[in-house]
Amino acid sequence: MISTIINLRLGSYTVSALRDLQEHFPRVRDAFPDVSNEELTQLTRQYPATVTPDGFLDSPTFAFLIRGSGQTMLVDTGMGPRPSPFSGQTGTLLSMLSDAGVDPPDITTVFLTHAHPDHLGWILDLKMQPTFANARHVINRRELGSAPPPARLILDLLQKQNLLESFEDTWTLGETLQTVFTPGHTPGHTSLLLHSDGAQLLFLGDALVHPVQLQHPEWVMGLDHDSQQAIHTRQEVMAWASAGHGWLAATHFQRPFVRAEASLGRADSGNSAG
Ligand SMILES: [Zn+2]
Predict the structure, then answer these.
(1) For 6-263, CATH number?
(2) Helix (H), strand (E) at residue 167
(3) What is the pLDDT of residue 259?
(4) SS in 3 state form for 20-82?
(5) Could you tell me which of 15, 6, 3 has the C-alpha nearest to residue 74?
(6) Which residue among 13, 72, 230, 251 has its CA within the 20 to 30 Å range from the CA of 65?
(7) How remote is the CA of residue 189 from the centroid of ligand 1, in Å?
(8) Pure H helices in the chain
(9) How far, in Å, is the centroid of ligand 1 from the Cα of 211?
(10) pLDDT, tens digit, for every residue of 140-191?
(11) pTM score of the predicted model
(12) CB neighbours of residue 274 within 10 Å
């Protein structure tokens, strides 16, 4: 398990990728149900570190810490303290935050890209109390209606404690953070754009789950709620990124920070930053 914090300096902000987990996800065959065996073989050849010898995706789950302009905020919260249904492992986000010099009460805002368990995990501790008790937790309102029951329970508890802020169309924080609606993986899936001093970073959430989707936005993940919408969203993200607008931050890429225009068309790597 690699526990190194990966930092990216973006204008006057520091963004840290904190690896909550590294685990074996579904078989690559099940992850991309519509892709041919030949293409999957190509994927394994191109991204060998992401596929185990017995054909499972080997995937990290990152949360992102943003520090700057008086903010100490998280984008998503990893799988959390309860055992992952895939591997039985528990997440390490809190110790990584501690290594970064941050205590949970320091977190001012938690932005949630969507209501899947590997993104909501640390919101409640093992006593079902808010881990980030001083933070407002921000999520697209569409996710409240479509969240699976365990996620619904978490969000309801936050709501009762006045720690949940849901938004209808867009949400902004100051002049530097704004939402970008990226539906498909879930109905209300929303990415977050950080811009500072001419530099930009788009927190993808699960709009792209594997770096092969940088070259193949049309490759549908079995977990995507609406596959056509997910393809459309990935194409829009890639149009933005390949025009040189900035960095992408991806929850489940081995190297979480990507400058997409540099990696498009490259056969050796889908990631150019670390
Ligand atoms: Zn995820």
Answers:
(1) 3.60.15.10
(2) strand 164-167
(3) 86
(4) EEEEEEEEHHHHCCCCCHHHHHHHHHHCHHHECCCCEEEEEEEEEEEEECCEEEEECCCCCCC
(5) 15
(6) 230
(7) 11
(8) 28-31, 37-46, 93-99, 117-120, 141-146, 149-160, 212-215, 227-242, 260-263
(9) 14
(10) 999 998 998 889 999 999 999 999 999 999 999 999 999 999 999 999 999 9
(11) 0.92
(12) 12
Measured between alpha carbons, how far is 163 from 156 in angstroms, rounded to an integer? 10
Q: 251 C-alpha to center of ligand 1: Å?
A: 6
pLDDT tops 70 at residue 59 = yes
Cα–Cα distance measured from residue 7 to residue 14, given in angstroms and rounded to the nearest whole number: 7
Measured in Å, residue 181 CA sits from the centre of ligand 1 at: 16
Distance 114 CA to ligand 1 centre (A): 9
- For 251-270, how does the pLDDT look when each residue is reduced to its tens digit (9 = 90+)? 999 999 998 665 554 333 33
Expressed in angstroms and rounded, the spacing between residue 207 Cα and the centre of ligand 1 is 9
Domain ranges of the chain: 6-263
Closest CA to 178 of 169, 186, 166: 169
Model confidence over 205-261: pLDDT tens digits?
A: 999 999 999 999 999 988 889 999 999 999 999 998 888 778 999 999 999 999 866
Rounded to whole angstroms, the Cα distance separating 88 from 47 reads 25
